[in-house]
Amino acid sequence: MVAKSGGDWSGDAAQQARSLVLLLATLAATITYQAGLDPPGGVWPDNKNGHMAGDPILLTVNAGRYKAFYYCNSVAFVASLVAIILVQSKVMLETHVLEAAMVLDLFGLIGAYAAGSSRDLSTSIYAMALAGAVLVYVVIHVVFFTLNHGDPTPEEIKSVDKRRKRLLLFAVLAATITYQAGLTPPGGVRLQDDGSSGHQAGDPVLFYNFPRRYTAFFYCNSVSFMLSIALIILLVNPHLYRPAIRSYALAVCTGAGMFGLMGAYAAGSTQHLKTSIYIFVLGAVVLFVIAVLLLVFLDNRNANVTSQPRPENDDDEERKTKQAKRKYLMLLGILVASVTYQAGLDPPGGAWQHSGSGYDAGNPIMHDNQRHRYLAFFYSNSTSFVASIVVIIILLLEWKDGKRWSLKVMNTTIVLDLLALLVAYAAGSSRGWKTSVYVVALVIAVLAYVAVHIVLAISCCHSPREENSVDPARVAPAG
């Protein structure tokens, strides 16, 4: 946490500590609660062979692994609730009890993920080793790249703390969506044993039909999850995150985490290599569009440049406005990336449980029954996901920091991002084109309502009473 020397806590420091604990505890409580009620491997659909319908499949086929997942997940959940309840206690903050509880919480998440996302011991060990490898890399990077760095100035500390908030938002995003995706992989899990093929209930369907693709998804998703957990652990302590941010060690980890997310999405959202390549092509297209928008806004800015100096108060106000704009864009990007990642891995309509004539188990049902609607959903959802990831990366790197027109570019990209999200919703939430048209009509109706409200507000601001009012200063004195 952020503590002052001598153990005295200022109001700002205590508020920052409470905000951090609430953010992490809320994250952990949300994902562990869902994972506990919907355990990895699914549940039995019927009473048969000594098990009851509704019981976890993993408890029957691998009791030791299920118990490891259950207790690690429960420890993380209980620790989160305790931290949320006690976060208002100043004594808990000063003694760093809640900080220790949140670290225990994060290690519980690591154990639950390692036990629930795989079915063999070696893979679980590899997954847990990833977090340790990240921490070791950050330490080595900081040691070698901060040898010639002096003590940071107050301005540098303030800038680092701002960047830390953005990195923490990314880490929360990645940890939330990758934890859920790792425990409930794309394509679903088998609900019955298949003696002829050797497939066991509770195993991922994608693992048997497309083993290479599932392996690519698993490790990309695991890398992103472990990176995010390691980032959160480092971002808790200022003695760790300040040199790590100044040496760009956390920037490297963030970039690797972003590419891990894109790799997991490309491998898990489709079963065809060509379509996966299209996703990365979409990233290049989004960057091209952003470059074009930069040129357009830059030309407009150069055409409107004036030689009049700005007062310092206006500069301070503009700086605060741009900082609030960055937070707004970052939150929107995180929101869109979260929902599109989950929707891409778990598409509407579900996935086939068994292979048949013309389709394979694990493939999206909508892809075979309503191909055009699925393609409209998939490409719109993928465009929205890739665009949000690109915007998050640019905001984290503070690219073109201080330029108002660069924020306009990001804002335009987010608007296009939300439009793609709307198309994906219209295509994936219904099974008839008529219903999709209704969704578009609802958007038009909402925009019309907003337009009417704006017109009424403007008319009220320019009421006849204000127009007929006379300024006493402009009245000439008598005589």
TrEMBL record:
<feature type="domain" description="PGG">
    <location>
        <begin position="159"/>
        <end position="270"/>
    </location>
</feature>
<feature type="transmembrane region" description="Helical">
    <location>
        <begin position="248"/>
        <end position="265"/>
    </location>
</feature>
<dbReference type="GO" id="GO:0016020">
    <property type="term" value="C:membrane"/>
</dbReference>
<protein>
    <recommendedName>
        <fullName>PGG domain-containing protein</fullName>
    </recommendedName>
</protein>
<feature type="transmembrane region" description="Helical">
    <location>
        <begin position="20"/>
        <end position="37"/>
    </location>
</feature>
<feature type="domain" description="PGG">
    <location>
        <begin position="321"/>
        <end position="431"/>
    </location>
</feature>
<feature type="domain" description="PGG">
    <location>
        <begin position="15"/>
        <end position="119"/>
    </location>
</feature>
<keyword id="KW-0472">Membrane</keyword>
<keyword id="KW-1133">Transmembrane helix</keyword>
<dbReference type="InterPro" id="IPR026961">
    <property type="entry name" value="PGG_dom"/>
</dbReference>
<keyword id="KW-0812">Transmembrane</keyword>
<feature type="transmembrane region" description="Helical">
    <location>
        <begin position="277"/>
        <end position="298"/>
    </location>
</feature>
<feature type="transmembrane region" description="Helical">
    <location>
        <begin position="409"/>
        <end position="427"/>
    </location>
</feature>
<feature type="transmembrane region" description="Helical">
    <location>
        <begin position="68"/>
        <end position="87"/>
    </location>
</feature>
<feature type="transmembrane region" description="Helical">
    <location>
        <begin position="96"/>
        <end position="114"/>
    </location>
</feature>
<feature type="transmembrane region" description="Helical">
    <location>
        <begin position="376"/>
        <end position="397"/>
    </location>
</feature>
<feature type="transmembrane region" description="Helical">
    <location>
        <begin position="328"/>
        <end position="345"/>
    </location>
</feature>
<feature type="transmembrane region" description="Helical">
    <location>
        <begin position="167"/>
        <end position="183"/>
    </location>
</feature>
<dbReference type="Pfam" id="PF13962">
    <property type="entry name" value="PGG"/>
</dbReference>
<feature type="transmembrane region" description="Helical">
    <location>
        <begin position="439"/>
        <end position="458"/>
    </location>
</feature>
<feature type="transmembrane region" description="Helical">
    <location>
        <begin position="216"/>
        <end position="236"/>
    </location>
</feature>
<feature type="transmembrane region" description="Helical">
    <location>
        <begin position="126"/>
        <end position="147"/>
    </location>
</feature>
